[in-house]
Amino acid sequence: MITALLPIFFAVLLLGLPIFAALAFAVILAIQFFGNTDPVIVPMRMFSGMNNFSLMAIPFFILAAELMRIGGLSDRLIDLAKALVGWVPGGLAAATVLSCLFFGSISGSSPATVVAIGSIMFPALVAAGYDKRFAIGVIATAGTLGPIVPPSIALIIYGSVTGTSVGRLFAAGLLPAILIASILIAYCIVYASFKGYGRSTFPSLREIGSAFKAAAWGLGLPVILLGGIYSGVFTPTESAAVACMYGLFVGMVVYRKIDFKNLLSTLNSAGLMSASLLLITAGASAFSWLLAITGAPTQLAGEVLSWTEDPIQVMALFNVVMLIAGFFLDSASAIIVLSPLLQPIAAQVGVDATHFGVITLINFSVGMITPPVGLNLFVAMAISKMTLPEVFKACLPLIGLMLLSLVIITYVPWFSTYLPDLIYR
Length: 425
Fold this sequence. Notes:
Number of helices: 21
Number of strands: 0
Helix content: over 70%
Shape: globular
Structural class: mainly alpha
């Protein structure tokens, strides 16, 4: 049955069905023709996969991100990023990366980060004389910081399917996100120096202070959320509801950019995005369930460990597997399907579950900028009016930097484990 499952899935996917439907139909067909279980259990497993308290955080975080986006936060975060790094060579590109890091700490979503920052920064970069391919490559790649920096929707999904503490995962994502952002900013500086792009003047302390003041309400959100989680005031799921109330207050009362008309449209768009993501979660849960009941994780563990028990080799193999999976599956589906299979094997060779969660997320973040399913590429196409091959080609040098970051984070666990161990000791 497992031998037939993957070919059936890819065959159904090629017919043009949405990913959640392809996952569910693959399970139904595999059970119908190769198993001895009633296929009626599949919708039950799909519902069971969504019936998880941790997953309640997803629609709340999506709504909070939408509220902060339309509430005028993007412009203020960009102004702050310009004040902090705009004076270096390639400062506008460096500010783009930093803006994505800031906005990612609010949205937790890669495509949302590309939309919010890219729609503003792409025209600004082109107008400043930057090559449009370089500009869109930086934006699409820096958008992958959205799910890595806490709070992250993808880490919530990983925590729910592996039983790993979401609080520890949030803490684990911060230093890797800063490392990746630093590498991307360094690339922007080197590239701009080579091309002779200009830079802004060094800002005064008053200008930096003014930029911080303007963006303070937005930057306060991750501080409140993470502070509340680690102090025990509320759970990660409850923090998502707090984020919604905070975003609504800032957008309607402080910045006064949200009225009842665009609030309704925001609720509608957030509801559609949440439904889409939860449907994918449901389909992937049924797929993962079938793998589990057939003993696939145990068989896979035996096969892998019969080849080698060296953690370096095992993690190199897993990185290759996840990178390839990221070409064809969105992050949510890939995490739900592969994490229950791979994480127990990683644990057997001594890899911490929190560390493995960050490695998993970075692998699938790379998948966001690789065809044929890379969502960031399609968002970047809409922003830049460029073709898919052009956008992907623009991302290639930065994909190399993402892979370099992946290798560093995989084999230097300190980046993922230092803050969780510090907070939860």
